[in-house]
Amino acid sequence: MNDKLKALREELKYDKTDSCVQCGYCLPACPTYATMGKETHSPRGRINLVKMVGEGKITDLSVLEEPMDLCLGCRACETVCPTGVEYGSILEAARAAITRRKTYSAPVRILRHTLFKRVFPSRQAMNLIGNAKWFYEKSGVQKLARKSGVIAKLPSHLGDFEVIAPPAVSPLERSRLPRFTAARGAKKYTVAFFTGCVMDAMFRRINHLSVKLLAAAGCDVVVIDNQTCCGALHAHSGELDESKRLAKRNIAAFEQVEADFIVNNAGGCGALLVEYGHLLADEPEWKERAKRFAEKSKDISQVLVWCGGVSVAKHSAERVTYQRSCHMTNVQKVNKEPLQLIRSIPNVEFVEMKEAEMCCGSAGIYNIVNFDASMDILDRKMEYVNDTLAATIITTNPGCLLQMKLGVEREQKSGQVRVLHLVEFLAEAAGIE
């Protein structure tokens, strides 16, 4: 084997493909295989392509691009795999290898650089976006844009997402997320709250409610100023080096606080936070620090359950269903706690949907860059949601939240079915605003 092929194998994590015995157990669990019916768009098919590249049978890595691009990265295949294939690592490495070799047009290159290095990692930039959205809504520009039809003409179906985006909070309210919130009653834990980038810009209200819920449950809550984006969007887009840089920034920031847990409220963010040890495993200076950070990282549902749940003020009778976050389920392995919290609320009838573990098609920005493929997956999901006759769909991830809202719009049920983050649902039941 020549040195070039050996280096390529290491880059692609070729050795990890040996665990795949091509048994096909992953096929029924894969959303893209279910909707596209192509072997190249299944986990074992993608792994086989990587093997062929690593063995020199395929010399053009662009062959990998479409199969990897159309993968949701939900990692449901890992959950059902009988041989423990680390599909996430293989996918991550393949995407990074493709990105390193791809020549982007000038506009795309500038856009990627701006978003990944200047916008998502910057709290100031994300705050500016949140404030701009509030001004857009309150100034009358939104009404004018919708009335004129401009929204419907936005590229990449962005107009569809504009309609279902949550209302922005005011700049004044944005400034009211305290750096420290004391536990109500006897303190059970001290937690450091991970705000995220998109969560903080677009879903600030959920962050506020998260802090209040944690405090009500008995946690001292610390919000660290110099934290940054988790790096998940970067890793999923092949920007692995930038993802590692952001991980190091977060580790260094949260090391400054003595906390029992680092708490997040977004399944996608949490999935990367718990894998910081894997992400930085090859860097001796950061390996153990990353492992300690990952061990402390918990979803808010876990901590609320450990604190004894939520004290309910009053709740009307309601039928609900739960759309699982793939990354929370398949990577963080947080399955029982959200259901336990939902079922603890009086007068709530919980109805499980068919194929509850199947991805909704959001997957970070997948529903923007692969809209048609995403909608095929969403439409299948909404069939099963409709069968539950639920009035409320509960989610645990911002992407899932928007995707399910879009599904409700596509089904023309916006006046009949609502979509809430678990935090919103619990805060409502607890009388927290």
List the helices and strands and how they pair.
Elements: H1 3-12, H2 31-36, H3 43-54, H4 65-69, H5 76-80, H6 87-101, H7 106-119, H8 123-138, H9 141-148, H10 158-164, H11 171-174, E1 180-181, E2 189-193, H12 198-202, H13 204-217, E3 219-223, H14 232-236, H15 240-254, E4 261-264, H16 267-273, H17 276-279, H18 284-296, E5 297-299, H19 300-306, E6 318-322, H20 326-330, H21 336-343, E7 348-350, H22 366-369, H23 371-388, E8 392-395, H24 398-410, E9 418-421, H25 422-430
Parallel strand pairs: 2-3, 2-4, 4-5, 6-7, 6-8, 8-9
Antiparallel strand pairs: 1-3
Structural overview:
- With 433 residues, the protein is an alpha/beta fold.
- It has 25 helices and nine strands.
- Among the domains are: 3-101, Alpha-helical ferredoxin (Fumarate Reductase Iron-sulfur Protein, Chain B, domain 2, Orthogonal Bundle), CATH 1.10.1060.10; 311-430, Rossmann fold, CATH 3.40.50.
- Helices cover 53% and strands 8% of the residues.
- It is globular.
- Its cofactor is [4Fe-4S] cluster.
Please name the defining characteristics of this protein.
9 strands, alpha/beta, five-stranded mixed β-sheet, four-stranded parallel β-sheet, 433 residues, Fumarate Reductase Iron-sulfur Protein, Chain B, domain 2, Rossmann fold, single chain
| Residues in β-strands, percent | 5-15%
N-to-C span: 63 Å
- As residue ranges, the low-confidence spans are none
Strand order of the largest sheet: 1-3-2-4-5
Highest-level CATH class of one domain: Alpha Beta
Structural class: alpha/beta
Mean pLDDT: 94
Q: Mind telling me which CATH architecture of one domain this is? A: 3-Layer(aba) Sandwich
Helix content: 40-55%
CATH topology of one domain: Rossmann fold
Count of β-strands: 9
Shape: globular
Radius of gyration: 22 Å
Largest sheet: 5 strands, mixed
* Number of distinct helices: 25
Cofactor: [4Fe-4S] cluster
Protein name: Glycolate oxidase iron-sulfur subunit
Enzyme class: oxidoreductase
Keywords: 4Fe-4S, Electron transport, Iron, Iron-sulfur, Metal-binding, Repeat, Transport
